[in-house]
Amino acid sequence: MFPDADTAYLALQNHDARFDGRLFVGVTSTGVYCRPVCRVRIPKRENCRFFGSAAQAEASAFRPCLKCRPEIAPGLSLMDSSAVLAQAAARALAHAVHSGEALALPTLAARLGVTDRHLRRIFQAAHGVTPRDYISTQRLLLAKQLLTDTNTPVTQVALASGFESLRRFNAAFAERYRMSPTRLRREGPGPAPGTPLRLAWRPPYDLAAVLEFFARRAMPGVEQVDMDGLTLRRTLALPHAGALRAGWLACHFVPARHELHLTTSSSLAPALGSLLARVRHSFDLDADPAQIDPVLARLPVAPRPGLRLPGCFDGFELAVRVILGQQVTVQAARTLVRRLVQQFGTPIDTPFSGLDRLFPDAATIAAADPETIGRLGIVRQRVRALQALAAEVAAGRLLLHRDAPLEPTLAALRALPGIGEWTTQLVAMRALAGPDAFPATDIGLLNALGTRDVAAVTQAAEDWRPWRAYAVIRLWHHLENPA
């Protein structure tokens, strides 16, 4: 919830990171807006104006601070907005900007099941700006981050940020920020070779639990987790602007700064917008522990402040892994995934020993010989489910990312052969970022609660809404780490 002005100013005075991404402060004496964690001298109270989003601050003619950099602040999770529809629209528009997708508002309205006019009205009421202004802010903040943290040529930055031409990009940048893109880059410190992209989160953050989760499930050849170095490395292929960009990335956590530092291969540079969004989703950087932790305190296990819901870098990959995990242990599922990657994954060169494969894409799995997949030890029912899923994803009929419409996507999954409610709910949790998804029949969940009574567990879980997916992660972690 957005704080009142007195609370907002107190948060600014204390550099309170819990309000990061929820509160932006416009300073009338400078014309700049900041995050509450900004370390510049605290402005006078009478010079401060408070906003609930960067878009609102920019609509009021404030430009982003070059020191605290509002573009790296954590965003909002699926449950943050009281107007869920307006929040879903905002997430879809942000996804379109970062992925390079051309998304017209009437198309989005139809996807959400409302009229164009109604969507504009509720969006304005919920976010304080029009959808067009919101898109403009998302594009310019993405451009500002790429200009600051990378050496990507300005023309490529313009295209990666969703601008159709360099002229339009320069005009929009100058109008909103009162400087040219080249001036921003010239006057800034400039990135040194290997300088990472920075992404912030709201503390607390249970980093040990997140890294343990990924380490336990890491795919040989595709993923590596360095627990001591607080780093996850992996390969990835991203569709962007009609082309597939393949490369590697490394995510290093810096707890003292409440930041994740991202380095990538140069081959992923054109798709950095999409990659940043996927990293945020994978590590749940937009979560607000102040809302989640009080609910998780009701669980019958010891609390862990700052628990996150691990997402995924690719929704199809995650869905495949969930299907292969049906009715087997985590280790057995990992073995099947490793065989699938070795058989169908594309080799790739990286600077990291043992990181040498891309996860097979949907078109490859859909076109594969079922007998070849079966010889990997995957039973016929799973093969059928894998190929049905792959065919829908490859054809573009099924979107598996956190900004896809939740209920229609779940209905489409349930209609596929070999995909039941358990699989659907796990995909909802980790690929679609559904914070209240709940696989009630999950054996790990039942073991953690010491029961086989699914009805009783479902009833008890009513007390964990709207964060039941986070409750599942906490109970899994308790089962895997009872101490």
Secondary structure elements and their pairing?
Layout: H1 5-13, E1 24-27, E2 32-34, E3 48-51, H2 54-59, E4 63-64, H3 84-99, H4 105-112, H5 116-127, H6 131-149, H7 154-160, H8 166-177, H9 181-187, E5 197-200, H10 207-217, E6 223-226, E7 231-240, E8 243-254, E9 259-264, H11 272-282, H12 289-296, H13 315-324, H14 330-344, H15 362-367, H16 370-374, H17 380-394, H18 406-414, H19 421-430, H20 443-449, H21 454-460, H22 468-480
Parallel strand pairs: 2-4
Antiparallel strand pairs: 1-2, 1-3, 5-9, 6-7, 7-8, 8-9
Helix pairs in contact: 3-5, 3-6, 3-11, 13-14, 13-17, 13-19, 18-19, 20-22
Overview of the structural elements:
With 483 residues, this protein is of the alpha+beta class. It is built from 22 helices and 9 strands. It has helices spanning 5-13, 54-59, 84-99, 105-112, 116-127, 131-149, 154-160, 166-177, 181-187, 207-217, 272-282, 289-296, 315-324, 330-344, 362-367, 370-374, 380-394, 406-414, 421-430, 443-449, 454-460, 468-480; strands at 24-27, 32-34, 48-51, 63-64, 197-200, 223-226, 231-240, 243-254, 259-264. Strands 5-9-8-7-6 form a 5-stranded antiparallel beta sheet. The chain has a 4-stranded mixed beta sheet with strand order 3-1-2-4. The longest helix has 19 residues, at 131-149.
